[in-house]
Design brief:
- Strands 1, 2, 3, 4 and 5 form a five-stranded mixed β-sheet that branches. A four-stranded mixed β-sheet has the order 7-6-8-9, with helices on one face.
- It is an alpha+beta fold and about 280 residues long.
- A hairpin with a 2-residue loop joins β2 and β3.
- It has six helices and nine strands, in the order βααββββααβαβαββ.
- It is globular.
Amino acid sequence: MAILLACIYTGDVTAQPNGQDQPIDQDPNPESSSELPFSDISVSLSKLGENYLRTGSFVKAQKMAKVQPGTSQQQVITYLGMPYLKGQYPGGEAWEYHINLPITENDVIVCQYQVAFTDEKVSNLAWRRPQCESLYEKVPKLPTEVFVTSADILFDFSSANLSEQGKERINEVANALLNNYAQPQISITAHSDRIGTEDYNQILSELRAHAIAHHLVAAGVPAGQIQIEGRGKSEPLVQCPGNKITAELKDCLAPNRRAQVEVIELQPDRDEGTTYSSSAVSSSN
């Protein structure tokens, strides 16, 4: 298999053998730049050898597609793995990845990919080379399917105990995971509404994510395939007036009380016609 290096060229940074940390070429006027410059490798042709070739990782397209503005750093690691290097830029942090993209059936090109963060959430995504972005856009993205239930099906208000109806719903999700996926990666993310303190809602969302994961494992889903995260009241879908806790306020805030189960198939040798789905279920708070 041939590997082309789209992202190696002569620059001002001394070359480092693969696997070692590299300094990042800094903008002489960093306040004028909103992005982290990509790392360069500079070496004379006579000294060029294997140790100076940029090597990339093979990342499933459906995993890369999950990294979007607002994605947390932990989720990025779940989807893409650890970055090649990390650096600071005005306003946040940026991680650099080296991704292998196919150019023919047997050849790949190594492309530099940047994930920038503000307050530990993705704020910008960029390929260094336009040809890499073009190649990525041509990589088939597998279809997804979303399943949504009503807001009050999983938990009673202010509870992290699954209701009987909620258990039935999670059993349905477990059956889909066990029957339709060979090697699923499952991410459970729970949210709350704004009623109560920030700490209370954060803990409640984490407990709910744990409850869903525990029930999936009890139904036969391997625990090693599951990642969980609670986001408290930090990502509301709707805004509702008033602070007095009334039935009307609870009803209005219902869309914010949700738990999402996202599934990515990691099995590399799946039939082309297989449908890969992202399943979502909602909860009450």
